């Protein structure tokens, strides 16, 4: 079961609308740690047309949906009771969490019946992700469990037994099968999915289907019937295309969509991710920095922390430039406490108001006792990151400790940060960031870790290497290899792996293909290749030679050496599917 529901950010009494006070350009305010609503002002609104009712039953983060709705100029009225559902003029239902616990909450609160009645009256409804799945008869997630039973059919897990990477995370273009106004402008454009379960198309539900998509098999990506709409993808995280879909629901016009018949769904696009390593510089300002093999201090006599820009400004720019995701890594999180006197949460709040693609944040996710003796669990730290606008959190050092303990005992205690956070928020929301260093060996028998035959021999002519994991930003090495860590964290509930390489970081010589291939062949969760991008060709190389689902870069984007658009254009020319 999810933890006690956090108060929805921007919670409000029925009849008032909340509007965000925009963050000052690129400048997060310091010392504001109130939950969610720190930068919100409330004003009364009588204009029903500009207010949308949001069903947030408290099982997870719907801040991104709130931000997107506000960005489009609409106010939000939160559902407090079943009556609020029936009184809604326009209802958005962004289901989050697991199917079973969502149905429990909806049934217990009387909202399931209110939803069925609202839908029966054909009132304007938009379900998102789990908000689509719950409309069906049942789901195999935690079950079988009965759903709302509005649409005939079942929801099933993607089958990873034949190597399909699950969760399905990333961008696909849809095959639109019904001329619906909601999808106007979406034809041929990629939208963002993140899910492990999917609704199956069948003869019994074919009249509901407005688009399908492919991932291992065909699944329902949207439904439409009268005023009832639902989408499996996340419009609030699908860039400009997603915002226009959301707008089509919020302020419909009378013209229908013009769908060119026959356009097939695309394959899953490879993602290009911009990463911002963030820390305080010597003057105490939070800056984006960039290391050479993790050393972020200037090599001149000043030895200052390199300052490559303001976190929110850069994140917003990368969103505009076409990044498929933006990651913030709080690189001194291992020694500073992220919920302490640090403006990182405010950076996240401000960035999430401007960046409508997924935002990941990492650094410092672990149990912590502050100077006053107050204990914070890693789940609380992660929850605060989610409430502040993160779509995914990334765990570094603590995941190494959890994997070491698991490999020693063979027992999943359920107590590690990784297990706890993925249980509550779903494994698609939990990334494990690996910081390995190459260790050459003459003979694979020398070490009890998985080795690879390296493409370039070591300094003493060694033909093999293993990749030793580190913690605390590369400062301490641990007796575990990247291969062993990746497999262990997959079992413990990681949904994705961010695979750095200290040797390649900031070198611009390309990704460590040997490492990325070894790890991406070993797991069935997505692997993000990171460290070493120096030219557009490095991106096509990593996608052609490995099973990486995404490639991340930092330095070349910060120094404006290679724009994101050039990477995408190159990948298109190389025949790699990307979101353009
Ligand atoms: O251990 O849970 O507190 O998490 C700390 C996080 O901070 C980890 O994800 C770790 O990777 C990151 N981190 C810690 N120290 C550094 C550092 O650089 N001194 N940054 C650091 C890791 C690596 C990448 C970088 C790529 C691409 N940075 O994120 O962005 O290597 O760079 P490039 O394209 O310029 O080559 P915890």
Automatic annotation (TrEMBL):
SUPFAM superfamilies: Class I glutamine amidotransferase-like (SSF52317), Ribulose-phoshate binding barrel (SSF51366). CDD domains: GATase1_IGP_Synthase, HisF. Its EC number is 3.5.1.2. It is an enzyme of class 3 (hydrolase). Residues 396-397, 433-435, 505-506, 531-532, 554-555 are annotated as: PRFAR binding. It is found in: Plastid, Chloroplast. The active site is at residues 129, 234, 236, 277, 435. InterPro entries: Aldolase_TIM (IPR013785), Class_I_gatase-like (IPR029062), GATASE (IPR017926), His_biosynth (IPR006062), HisF (IPR004651), IGPS_HisA/HisF (IPR050064), IGPS_HisHF (IPR014640), Imidazole-glycPsynth_HisH (IPR010139). Keywords: Amino-acid biosynthesis, Chloroplast, Glutamine amidotransferase, Histidine biosynthesis, Hydrolase, Lyase, Multifunctional enzyme, Plastid. GO terms for cellular component: chloroplast. Pfam families: GATase (PF00117), His_biosynth (PF00977). Pathway: Amino-acid biosynthesis; L-histidine biosynthesis; L-histidine from 5-phospho-alpha-D-ribose 1-diphosphate: step 5/9. It comes from the Eukaryota. Signal peptide: none annotated. The keyword Membrane does not apply. Residues 54-250 form the Glutamine amidotransferase domain. Substrate binds at residues 364, 500. It catalyses: 5-[(5-phospho-1-deoxy-D-ribulos-1-ylimino)methylamino]-1-(5-phospho-beta-D-ribosyl)imidazole-4-carboxamide + L-glutamine = D-erythro-1-(imidazol-4-yl)glycerol 3-phosphate + 5-amino-1-(5-phospho-beta-D-ribosyl)imidazole-4-carboxamide + L-glutamate + H(+); L-glutamine + H2O = L-glutamate + NH4(+). L-glutamine binds at residue 129. One of its GO terms (molecular function) is imidazoleglycerol-phosphate synthase activity. One of its GO terms (biological process) is L-histidine biosynthetic process. IGPS catalyzes the conversion of PRFAR and glutamine to IGP, AICAR and glutamate. The glutaminase domain produces the ammonia necessary for the cyclase domain to produce IGP and AICAR from PRFAR. The ammonia is channeled to the active site of the cyclase domain. In the C-terminal section; belongs to the HisA/HisF family. Belongs to the HisA/HisF family. This is Imidazole glycerol phosphate synthase hisHF. It comes from Leersia perrieri.
